[in-house]
């Protein structure tokens, strides 16, 4: 018997999001994604919140096993340190819940290779041109199936928990559109069993690199001074912000195109501003300040905004009493139960 997806959809929202374990999160990850995960814990008391450290996705870029193990623990410690509460939210390693891989296989049987080949991430990761196709020689020789089908696994992450809302940065919108496409394809073939998720885009700007303010702050940039890690000490924060690239124009104005360095600092200040002023408001308020004075205000604001995170993070990693492992297993157990409900429906629908 087929039930309509709408009758299966829980009326409270189900929120799902994921982060790759690829190093300690930086200020961009924090304000662009993670801070919102914490915020939802209070803002949406009735929503089911599920957050995953996506280690299956991480091996699309091959890495030494010991490094992956360390990055996973660091990511878990970072999420707890910023305030994710394992009782309130389900927090788990993706590879601990095999339903994610199982649903991925099933989705891949109705997913279009043509659609996947038009997506941008595999081309960016292989430094190929935007108009490259899988038939091009260089692409065909370097592209692995896992990197190509990365979006199918991401769709499975979301759909296996019947997520209704997915908070992600702008760069992930294409993957969310593809997840909805997977729902359409599956439901067309097998009946209306999967729920189509909506994207929630955080209201904040992208945080730009401190050393090259025309590109976004990223984990992979060579210059360590280009990013502030959420575990940086006040000294490190001060030093990185004081050496941020600005310009030699006097006074403070908010002109992202012509003064990207100053604009980035104003954006960061606005993110942590108690009065919730916009970057343009702040530029007016501090019009006659020097870049040095602006940098010192930004340092103070960031130090205050990240206060306590570093200490909690170090304690979680240094006290090796099995706490992180217990939190991970507790979350995995909850995630397995959540995924099993969907897999029962899906398996029956497919004919297993
Ligand atoms: P990534 O580090 O690229 O795996 O990104 C993890 C999450 O952080 C995604 O939702 C991104 O959109 C978000 N994010 C990454 N870098 C930035 C940035 N510089 N500014 C704002 N959000 C970011
Ligand atoms: N691809 C996402 C990123 O790189 C991480 C991710 C994996 C994710 N699965 C997800 C995000 C499901 C949201 C929902 O940031």
Automatic annotation (TrEMBL):
Write down any Gene Ontology CC term.
mitochondrial matrix
State the UniProt keywords alphabetically: Aminoacyl-tRNA synthetase, ATP-binding, Ligase, Nucleotide-binding, Protein biosynthesis
Q: Which domain of life is it from?
A: Eukaryota
Which EC number(s) are documented for this chain? 6.1.1.2
An example GO biological process term is: mitochondrial tryptophanyl-tRNA aminoacylation
Q: Where in the cell is it found?
A: Mitochondrion matrix
**GO MF term list:** ATP binding; tryptophan-tRNA ligase activity
Which Pfam families does this one have? tRNA-synt_1b (PF00579)
InterPro entries associated with the record: aa-tRNA-synth_I_CS (IPR001412), aa-tRNA-synth_Ic (IPR002305), Rossmann-like_a/b/a_fold (IPR014729), Trp-tRNA-ligase (IPR002306), Trp-tRNA_synthetase (IPR050203)
Give the similarity note: Belongs to the class-I aminoacyl-tRNA synthetase family.
Cite the NCBIfam families for this sequence. Answer: trpS (TIGR00233)
- The protein, known as: Tryptophan--tRNA ligase, mitochondrial
